[in-house]
Model the fold of this input.
Amino acid sequence: MPTTTPRTSPTPATRTAPGERAPGRRPQGGPPLLAPVLAFAVLTVGYVVVNSSTPHPDASGKEVLTYARDNGSTIELGSLLLFAAATPLALLAAVLYRRLRALGITAPGSAITLVGGCWRPRR
Done:
């Protein structure tokens, strides 16, 4: 008569080093990097195209106020595009950080990658 005890997979006797894989485990890859890079690039280029007629920094205050009054919706659209570009940038930074850590890199480079992608000042 066959028994109905559940079978468990054998666990390794020793822990694996950060750069090594456990036998039979596939490393986690995460999402492809091309998708957030392209999304960030498209949204940023869209922002540049939408705001290409913005007055230069050496323009007079009157020119800037006139532009802001006449093109309020364009400024808002550009702001939305630039804000939307921050989301794929944060995702890219998190994926790159995780991949560097999965490779066993413990140097400050992986933390610099994370901070460079989604830096915000502490209050």
About this structure: The CA atoms of residues 50 and 65 lie 18 Å apart.
